[in-house]
Write a structure and sequence with these properties.
Blueprint (H helix, E strand, L loop, with lengths): L3 H8 L3 H12 L5 H10 L1 H12 L9 H10 L1 H15 L10 E6 L5 H12 L7 E7 L2 H13 L11 E5 L5 H5 L2 H5 L3 E5 L2 H4 L3 H13 L5 E6 L3 H14 L5 E8 L10 H8 L3 H9 L2 E8 L2
Parallel strand pairs: 1-2, 1-4, 2-3, 4-5
Antiparallel strand pairs: 5-7, 6-7
Helix pairs in contact: 2-5, 2-6, 2-8, 3-14, 4-5, 6-7, 12-13
The structure holds S-adenosylmethionine.
S-adenosylmethionine binds next to helix 7 and helix 11.
Amino acid sequence: MRTKDQERRERGRSGYELSLHAFERLNPDLTADGLAQRLESLRPALRELRAKYQQNRVGHQYSDEMRQAYLLAYFPPYEEMARRVLDLADIPLPPSTLDMSAAFLCAGPGSDASAFAGLLRDRRHSSSNAHIALFDLNTDKWAPIQQAVIASGALASIPANQIRSYQIDLRESSSVAAHKAIFTGCDLVMAQNFLNEVHDDRHSIESLRTVWSWLRPGARMVLVDLPYDAWHQVSRKLRRLLHDEFVPERTIWVNSEEFRFEGPPKLLEDHLFSREWSDTLQAKRKLKYGCLVMTKA
Ligand SMILES: C[S@@+](CC[C@H](N)C(=O)[O-])C[C@H]1O[C@@H](n2cnc3c(N)ncnc32)[C@H](O)[C@@H]1O
């Protein structure tokens, strides 16, 4: 029986440890006091982010401070959620000798990509044959955070030159079409926590359909989000758009209470979360996420 410590070592750096490490890379040369102060300076951005999420309408404009707050407060639980989803979705991996390509839409800092890299590690898949594409509207803005996350070891097993970031706007068909060649070669396309930002835009739903139409047989599309109204709208719209092509293999409900999830280190609790903690992460423990897993026929 493996101990928790052994499991953690095998899994590599994860959760808050990883996001804090990435944060320190983004804010080099800070003394211990300076780090604590810098964390405290992010409290207004975290409050703003949380307030926007509570209204279910985020908009896609995150300030630099909000992106760093996202890294510290949201990356860890969402990486954990994606790990859980990918485990439950039972994504079939090709033999290690064959290429495996995954694309993440609305990737932000790369929480779900990091979870995918963890899945390859857990299943002992040789990730030297894995390719990852991170797509986001604001790729230029997220790129430094993605780089810090990668440099902190989140996707360590995948060769750096096989992890690429691309700009995409799901509202623009031409922007999506520019990446067709990537999608046609994908085994997995995943979008997680995207409805807040795209749910009222029918072009974005059309784009999901277009991407789906390009996938090869056996490829999977995994959509994960909170099951608020938008979730049902999206699945209804997709159903309508795809007619009989769209057969969700299943909807998985992920309860955040089940996350194998460790609390934040004291540094974060004391200097960032002290007041925010109950509103961001505790709340998530009680949330149920919906996850549509679709396999292309
Ligand atoms: C809440 S973040 C989710 C990040 C990550 N998937 C996760 O679960 O942690 C949503 C992302 O969607 C991106 N986004 C918003 N509108 C978009 C659009 N029209 N096209 C592509 N990405 C978009 C934002 O830039 C943001 O990074």
